[in-house]
UniProtKB/TrEMBL annotation:
<keyword id="KW-0472">Membrane</keyword>
<dbReference type="InterPro" id="IPR017871">
    <property type="entry name" value="ABC_transporter-like_CS"/>
</dbReference>
<keyword id="KW-0132">Cell division</keyword>
<feature type="domain" description="ABC transporter">
    <location>
        <begin position="2"/>
        <end position="227"/>
    </location>
</feature>
<protein>
    <recommendedName>
        <fullName>Cell division ATP-binding protein FtsE</fullName>
    </recommendedName>
</protein>
<dbReference type="GO" id="GO:0016887">
    <property type="term" value="F:ATP hydrolysis activity"/>
</dbReference>
<keyword id="KW-0131">Cell cycle</keyword>
<dbReference type="InterPro" id="IPR027417">
    <property type="entry name" value="P-loop_NTPase"/>
</dbReference>
<dbReference type="InterPro" id="IPR005286">
    <property type="entry name" value="Cell_div_FtsE"/>
</dbReference>
<dbReference type="InterPro" id="IPR015854">
    <property type="entry name" value="ABC_transpr_LolD-like"/>
</dbReference>
<dbReference type="GO" id="GO:0022857">
    <property type="term" value="F:transmembrane transporter activity"/>
</dbReference>
<dbReference type="InterPro" id="IPR003439">
    <property type="entry name" value="ABC_transporter-like_ATP-bd"/>
</dbReference>
<dbReference type="GO" id="GO:0005524">
    <property type="term" value="F:ATP binding"/>
</dbReference>
<dbReference type="GO" id="GO:0005886">
    <property type="term" value="C:plasma membrane"/>
</dbReference>
<keyword id="KW-0547">Nucleotide-binding</keyword>
<keyword id="KW-1003">Cell membrane</keyword>
<comment type="similarity">
    <text>Belongs to the ABC transporter superfamily.</text>
</comment>
Length: 227
């Protein structure tokens, strides 16, 4: 599903943010990416979204080599990848329903599809009853649920979450991770960048640890390592 082959990314100067990384993630896997601040995790996510180009190496996602992808194909590619961020990034002036529906409207899904699909995903994330609420009327955990609903409404093959619990308390953090696990159980490949040691250690998933741009460990049912 995702293969990185000797991928490096250097910004203007200094050592590469991602340094000769090779890894393979199978369809349906749940993977944590951990590592200190500045170890290259967000850069890796941006490379997978084709927001950045690698300085060298190749990235293959769903059989497509990202480096060679024609520019006009990129929007379609990104639609197959759901993304969740630490800061939720909801539209403040739209209610829960519209925040999720928006992701379908931009790809011109017909209204009858939207009317069926949005309540479905809101039920999955446990927010069916709050569909009329605006982001400011929701708790942080609820806002992140909306962001997750928006990320999955178009049924992406892959869900990338960059510090999805960074702004949440421990209870809400665990609930969001359980939700990501549920989405994974339904077939979506899930990659989660996190600093949350307790959650990583309790969930017993694959853990890829980065340090200074390099993958220093990659364990099945791994633990959070300080490196
Ligand atoms: N746009 C940029 N221009 C120059 N250097 C950058 C840029 N973005 C990131 N870097 C550098 O690349 C390295 C890796 O950054 P990255 O954001 O990928 O780390 P991270 O592991 O996601 O960190 P954090 O846990 O703090 O989010 C850091 O040294 C950072 O300063």
């Amino acid at each position: 599903m995702i293969t990185l082959d000797s991928v490096s990314k250097s910004y203007a100067k200094g050592q590469p943010a991602v340094n000769n990384v090779s890894l393979h993630i199978e369809k349906g896997e749940f993977v944590f990416i951990v590592g200190n601040s500045g170890s290259g995790k967000s850069t890796l996510i941006k490379l997978l979204l084709k927001e950045l180009e690698p300085t060298s190496g190749t990235i293959k996602v769903n059989g497509q080599i990202l480096n060679k992808m024609k520019r006009w194909r990129v929007p379609k590619y990104r639609r197959g990848v759901g993304v969740v961020f630490q800061d939720f990034r909801l539209l403040k002036d739209r209610n829960v329903y519209e925040n999720v529906a928006f992701a379908q409207r931009v790809i011109e899904k017909p209204n009858r599809v939207i009317k069926k699909r949005v309540p479905e995903v809101l039920t999955l994330v446990g927010l069916a009853e709050k569909y009329k609420s605006f982001p400011k009327e929701l708790s942080g955990g609820e806002q992140q649920r909306v962001a997750v609903a928006r990320a999955i409404v178009n049924r992406p093959d892959i869900l990338l979450a960059d510090e999805p619990t960074g702004n949440l308390d421990p209870g809400n953090s665990m609930e969001i991770m359980k939700l990501l696990e549920e989405i994974n159980n339904r077939g979506t490949t899930v990659l989660v960048v996190t600093h949350n040691r307790e959650i990583v250690n309790s969930m017993k998933k694959r853990v890829i640890t980065m340090r200074k741009g390099v993958v220093v460990s990659d364990e099945k049912e791994g633990e959070y390592h300080e490196v």
